User: What shape does this take?
Amino acid sequence: MTYKNFTIETDADGIALVTWDMPDKSMNVFTVEVMDEIDRIVDETVADDKVKGVVFTSGKKTFSGGADLTMLKGMFSMIEEERTKDPAGAVKKLFDAAGRMTWLWRKIELNGKPWVSAINGTCMGGAFELSLACHGRVASNAKSVKLALPEVKVGIFPGAGGTQRVPRLANAQDALQMMTTGSSLTAARAKAMNLVHEVVEPDQLIPAAKQMIKNGLKPVAPWDEKGFKAPGGGIWTPAAAQLWPAASAILRRETAGNYPAALAILKSVYEGLQVPFDTGLRIEQRYFTQILQTTEAFSMIRSLFVSMQELGKGARRPAGVEKTELKKVGVVGAGFMGASIAYVTAAAGIPVVLIDRDMEAAGKGKTVSEGLVTGSIGKGRMTKEEGEKLLSLITPSDDYNSLKDADLVIEAVFEDRNVKKDVIEKVEAVLPETSIFASNTSTLPITGLAENSKRPAQFIGVHFFSPVEKMMLTEVILGKDTGDKALAVALDYVAAIKKTPIVVNDTRGFYVNRCVFRYINEAYDMLAEGVPAVMIENAAKFAGMPVGPLSLNDEVAVDLSQKIMRASIADLGEASVKPGHMTLIDKMVDELDRRGRKNGKGFYEYPAKPAKKFLWPGLKDLYPQKNPADVDIEVLKQRLLVTIALEAARTMEEGIVTDPREADVGSILGFGFAPYTGGTLSYIDGMGVKTFVSLCERLAKEYGDHFEPTPLLKEMAARGETFYGRFDPYGEGAKAA
Ligand code: NAD
Assistant: This one.
């Protein structure tokens, strides 16, 4: 039999080597077609008497990334449609679809012949679950081998037997930790957890897998043997009595109850370990069906998987502009940002010239890369040779002539219009006419800066976030005259450095910072109302934000807030900043010299390590304090999320952001907007625009006009629209991809 995605070669010992190698994909993923073929392969190998056992491996560098979640997106739409006609039937269909993989893997496990999974590279989700259903697992010890069940990160959970097999192999505590965080395991760690049997040199992978079969591997899973007991003895033991209450408490602490899928893992494991294996699988299937129907799963899969992938692949790239292979990039300004921009560029294999006012400053910029390389080598993430290669690509310089063959120059000098003007002129004096100039400004509108350029069509904003080497988002800003070529080159560059871009139109603060400052401003309001600072910070965490607003303000620097507020007042008038906010920040900076983490004091105190930072007790004396019992934490949570989401809605209304996928992905990658919501606009769509508008109206009455719903929101509420419906990124009116 022939297959589209697999080849089968049976050797003289009767071992069939099944190699998964999808012809039209760079990575193997499970699709309906792939599962159908696996189903047939099981039947074929069972029926073929010559086959004594099966080794299952991948023909690609990685083993597999797991299921193609776009498949789930299709399933959601199907169910939505069915639900209107036959609600119970729709759920039954979902239940059956959810169990397809589960029972196919079970069929492998029970097929009667030994199967060994030979894991040659990254093995994620459903692929790891398939491997767990094989009777033997051998992994290569290559650095690239990572095993994980990361489903919880996109709002679902390991629903193809993962919650049943992992805790029957590893101890329950490790199993829960791994699945509720979605963290990756090295091959060695997986072996230590009893999740793989052998770890071997890459070239020994297939021979070792075959040898397991030749050694008489039994085609029976441990839980299908009589008298099987889970490691540690299962649920009804003294150790388990200690583990489970703590596990629930830890989960609550880590997720604040915002992630139904994480809780479903706990329930599946706890309940599943008390029943026979097949019943456990059915319990898992039921929870999986429930989770698939949650708004969280729907929104997280859409934003964190589908949209992120689409944006990463250039959904907003203008068609018709040829792809640019960047041969040289210039970075002007080798300070805090420029130095790291040079690093990520060189890490992508692109030669960089790093320019500053003098050689000393430029050289200092390169030392940042040296430090990062040393750190990566120390952690085993990079070899010495790779580190040397990376550093050899960065040339510090004080000579603008070295930019004369650059394809792209990124400016990261002081946030000062005159300094930037001078740099733009100097760069354009040598830069080829066809090359692109990008500014990393965080506050100055691109259109204004482009007035200093002779080629405004080739002028664009490429806004990085700090720390550049960790933050996955890059905001690309179009000035009034920015042309398609500039956008295409900027997006090709962002793709080359493996970050996710969002493309926004020009405005003060662009998209991300507009939202971030709303978040911080709400905390200023709360402080002024006398809400204890600790409640503000905790409410933010309970709402799902990774960092509280006061802590965030300390990170971005309190005096930077002051600068931005003063610039707003100078450019837009007094009314653009609330007087109370200015008073608070002037006091913090000018009177108290509390500038944030950088000077060791801000809203927090920063004692010497290892002591942890703590909220500055003096905050209590700035405003008369409310009794905590009189503060409703739920309302604090709502205020923090609603004020950000409302700002995101404003940016859509103003045409700053034009694609809801970008608002959502930008909010999660840019400032960690409560990921379980799927992002700012999914948060609104998730509760319904009508509900959101009523919530805004209620908050506006109590906490100020900035909560007033906008005309667009009111109109959408009246018409029963959603952001993804009205601004359909796939619809006819959508921007050309
Ligand atoms: P920085 O002060 O650390 O670095 C600026 C660098 O520019 C310095 O090394 C300085 O010597 C150099 N420089 C100044 N004038 C120059 C000139 N005429 N020619 C060449 N080099 C010159 O500042 P930073 O924090 O790296 O910020 C740089 C830019 O990035 C700013 O526009 C800022 O708004 C933007 N930005 C900053 C952050 C952040 O978190 N700090 C985030 C995003 C964007």
